[in-house]
Amino acid sequence: MLILSRVNHENIVKLVGCCLQFDVPILVYEFVPNKTLYNLIHIQIDPSIRTLEIRLKVAAESAEALAYLHSSLDHLIILHGDVKSTNILLSNNFIAKVSDFGCSKIRTADEKYDMVKGTMGYLDPEYLRNFQLTDKSDVYNFGVVLLELLTRRTPLSVDKVSLASIFQEAMREGHFLELIDTEILHEDNMGLISDLATLASRCLIMTSESRPTMSTVAEELRRSLALTSSAANTSEHFTGEPSTGYYSLKGVAPMSIEFAR
């Protein structure tokens, strides 16, 4: 509550209120109708609603939200602590809403941290060694989310193998394109895919000081989104229906009721 009461950003889920009539306080958030980024990537089956442009849009907006949290609001820095695809909600017109601040911390710029909770497959290796959460820990988490968007693979395989480690090895050996989701891999966007893969790889560098800041990540994603938008404006394909939270799609295969619910 303390964190969410301090933030005001279009891409961060809004806290509406708190109910104290139960043993545990119940937080009430704005209604976000289109489930999670995880659902978009891994569960729903219609590729027409997870184009590269839509994936980039969600990534750029999520990065903007995290950069905002790291921007020293009222001389405080907010660390999310558990950035993952299930914590990025999707509102009308695929507007990203970063959510779930249960692992978040507020600190001043020079404060050290104790260990906090997180999710295996996303956790910063440096954080696991020294138990100190930093803004670069969020950058690592976000790098894994970028990999999900690029590969449509889960952060951990069935055998508990890390997607980040597989991807970084593929980048070193020069065959990362074998991991990219075939839905978005086309001859006309190979340069863009390569740039996004390089950005993800930089976010996943083992030494946190060598990773970019979230503001740098957001800026690079904005530029990439501008390139894709010039070729195809995703807003032409969607019209939100505020009364129900459902979408209509023009010239695109219908979205399943399960996804839009």
TrEMBL record:
The positions making up the signal sequence are none
| Any one Gene Ontology molecular-function term assigned to this protein's record | protein serine/threonine kinase activity
The UniProt entry's GO CC annotations, sorted and at most eight, read: plasma membrane
Q: Give the record's keywords alphabetically.
A: ATP-binding, Nucleotide-binding
Q: Which Gene3D superfamilies match?
A: Phosphorylase Kinase, domain 1, Transferase(Phosphotransferase) domain 1
Q: Has the keyword Nuclease been applied to this entry? A: no
Task: Report which residue ranges the record marks as coiled coil.
Answer: none
* Stored Pfam families: Pkinase
What region holds the Protein kinase domain? 1-225
Q: Which InterPro entries match?
A: Kinase-like_dom_sf, Prot_kinase_dom, Ser/Thr_kinase_AS, WAK-like
Which positions, given as ranges, span the membrane?
none
Example GO biological process term? Answer: cell surface receptor signaling pathway
Domain of life (superkingdom): Eukaryota
PANTHER family per the UniProt record, alphabetical = OS04G0275100 PROTEIN, WALL-ASSOCIATED RECEPTOR KINASE-LIKE 21
Protein name listed in UniProt: Protein kinase domain-containing protein
Origin species, per record, is Oryza meridionalis
Classification lineage:
Eukaryota, Viridiplantae, Streptophyta, Embryophyta, Tracheophyta
